[in-house]
Amino acid sequence: MTIATTAKGDKKPAAKKGMMENVLEQFNTAADKINLHPSIRKILSITNNEIIVHFPVKMDNGDVEIFTGYRVQHNNALGPYKGGLRYHPTVDIDAARALAMWMTWKTSLAGLPYGGGKGGIQLDPSLYSKNELERITRRFTFALADNIGPEHDIPAPDINTNAQTMAWMADTYMSTRPPAERSANQHVVTGKPAGSGGLEGRDRATGYGVYLTIKFWAENKNIDLNGKKFIVQGFGNVGYWASHFLETEGAKLVAVQDAFGSIQNQEGIKVADLFNYSKANDGSIVDFPNTEVLDGKEFFSVECDICIPAALGNQITEKNAHSIKAMLIAEGANGPTNVEGEKILLERGITIIPDILCNSGGVIGSYFEWLQNRNGELWMLDEVMAKLDKKLKESYNKVHAYSESKSMDMRTAAYCIAIERIEKAYIQRGIFP
Amino acid sequence: MKVTTINLCQSCLHVNPCVLTTLKELVFSCSEFDEINEEVPYEIKIR
């Protein structure tokens, strides 16, 4: 697939088949629906900047290793680039490009003043000590230099990076600034520990967002969540918190699947009890009292009203979409429903709250942390939750209204809204010179 | 996502017993992902 036409009609070489192609496919489908201006389509089809840095780090044994780090900045029409940094052996430029583009749509849909970015370091963290990982992180931050910044590009945690990684990055970046400016640069990254500029409640932001989108759907349909049955795939941060908040509405968790196995009890599973059990059993939910073991293949066909795939992609496909009993799929994970699976669900009248809306509570939480640091404020947990509620309601209502007015599914509507917002910014600003 | 160059499963603690997917070469994002090295703190799923 050709990514874009460059000046004077020169063609870029065909892009490597992979994630980028898939993300471009989603983009082009939505762009066709809204008749996106051809020039803006060209701009959005390609990334603004791609930074590759090779940097040396001294290991614990005195040897020096060279690492390769990436930062892809897709688009900043709406504000600074925003997106995670992951440490993994399979990080590459193609994946970073695709995920950066995805971040552009997500931040745009959420109505945030951000663009999209993504990056990471190609390494296997299991091979390095904590001290080595700290030096790698600090040297990577130094190598990125002014390619990141609180008003330019704001990284966040991703796979194998966490609050500690962000604290090291913030400290390193701030140390490179003149003394009087250091404190004013704390918001160069988000996802920091709560004691170092992090946000109260950030741990639950994504799961709370999943719950909120389900609540808004129910309110729109005049459905009472009390007594409704739901199933969750993945009992990590997102799955647990979404279940916790749904339970407070009277909804009943009836089946859970994690990496170790699947359990079911149609009478209900107490979320807090399961969480404590899983903590005490090395993260496994298997053999939780008063539940029956389910065959993994049967999980998505369990009797329920709401299904929350909150683990990984490609879970609802043409193979199992026919047997799903839920009337709502809330995509807590990224890409849990594939194209063929979605087609079947929509034909069956099952609503899908798409990932870029459903799990956007996390990036909205990041925005709040950034704002908090930028304004020199400290927000209380209840304030954070109330602001999340307001922001997500706005996003949900926009997507719902758009999908109703244009008679399209919520995913397509979400992409259309996201792209139209960026198109509007380009039309208002024009293209320099 | 149909195809991806990222493969998280190969460095995940649960790669062998995991029941979530048989398509372990296609996983680019997973809430159950745990890095094999316990010295590396757990992923924080906030993007």
From TrEMBL, chain A:
InterPro entries cross-referenced by the UniProt entry: Aminoacid_DH-like_N_sf, Glu/Leu/Phe/Val/Trp_DH, Glu/Leu/Phe/Val/Trp_DH_C, Glu/Leu/Phe/Val/Trp_DH_dimer, Glu/Leu/Phe/Val_DH_AS, Glu_DH, NAD(P)-bd_dom_sf, NAD_bind_Glu_DH
Domain of life (superkingdom): Bacteria
Keywords for the protein's UniProt record, in alphabetical order: NAD, Nucleotide-binding, Oxidoreductase
Active site: K118
Keyword NAD: yes
Record-annotated Glutamate/phenylalanine/leucine/valine/L-tryptophan dehydrogenase C-terminal domain positions: 199-430
Site, Important for catalysis: residue positions: D158
GO biological process, one term: L-glutamate catabolic process
GO molecular function list: glutamate dehydrogenase (NAD+) activity; nucleotide binding
Binding site for NAD(+): T206, N237
Pfam families membership: ELFV_dehydrog, ELFV_dehydrog_N
Similarity comment: Belongs to the Glu/Leu/Phe/Val dehydrogenases family.
Official protein name in the record: Glutamate dehydrogenase
Organism: Bizionia saleffrena
